[in-house]
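Re-run with default settings, no changes from the original entry. Doing this only to confirm the output is reproducible before filing.
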Amino acid sequence: MNTLKQLVSINSSNSQDEIVDFIKNKLKTKVKEIKIIRNKINNKPSILIGINTALKSISPVVLSGHIDTVVPSTKEYNTDPFTLAELDGKLFGLGTIDMKSFTAIIIDNIEKIKSQPYPVIAALTTDEETSLCCIENVIENLKKLKINPRLSIIGEPTKSRYKLMSKGCYEFTLELTGKTCHSSIPQNGVNAICAAAKIINFIEENQSRFNLTSNCGTIIGGDATNKVADKLELKFDIRSFDEDSVNLFIKEIENKLEEIKNNYVGLKYKLQNTLKIPAFYMKNMQKIKNLIKTTKSEDVVFGGGCEAGYLTSYSGDAIIFGVGDLALAHKPNEFVEIEEYKTYTKKFLKLLQKISKIYYEKTDS
């Protein structure tokens, strides 16, 4: 567990250069090629690692994960979030499941991964908890390098179960501009907060019609109780397996905004799509059935958004398969159970051995 201990000790919530350097130095003499990619927008680094292959003109298995974490609320931790602490068969520390354990398992088992008879690369990104710019940048580089994955394994926490679907996540920012005035004469102003209340109710009451879920996450508006609020910003997300349903729902939201605008004369609005995580679903279910021998409905769907949809939109199939419970992610006192960590490692290595027959046999169409 020493590698996991070292990874947890590195604060990768805001800056990730230190953890990238650590991984590079740990693996540079053990793998074929390492390429550091800088994002053009935020300059954050990602790592492409050719574990047993050069990074060009290949159809590999991709081990995909992120090495950034959320910013910890240190006051709520019972232990130091940057010190791996063992208690009652559990390892506590920031990122233990989300998702430094996956990176640690790759590093500690690099020789066994290298021995696979097909090309294996790792793609480790550093802004999954923020904008996901880096995975888009990684895919741009895969295209330039003519690397077309056949299968990606995304190590997000799944309690060591195989997940074959995840909803797309679409985040939006709505800005409302009204007109301020003294609260004793509200009829002389245009209240952005009151207008926002109507659109929030509309979102809540109509999401089920489109077979999707939505959440209004943050709202900022007004600056005093004795003034009519003329500015408001609302951020909300929509999650669905079907992007067309999202687009239809947004169209209805825009129609509702126009209706509200007519009732609040002088109101202006601006609606922007600020994040788009594509949905993930299996393209070739028969291959996956042969590979993992289970597709129980209760084990299929991954609850969060992740990098799987980006990878499958570009090339190949994917499995979300990692150690730990997603319900513990982004919370204080995050932990991974030692026994599951060991069991997952064995299951992960066994999966790599099975991939050759399913995805790389010459007779495979």
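The mean pLDDT is 93. The CA atoms of residues 58 and 147 lie 5 Å apart.
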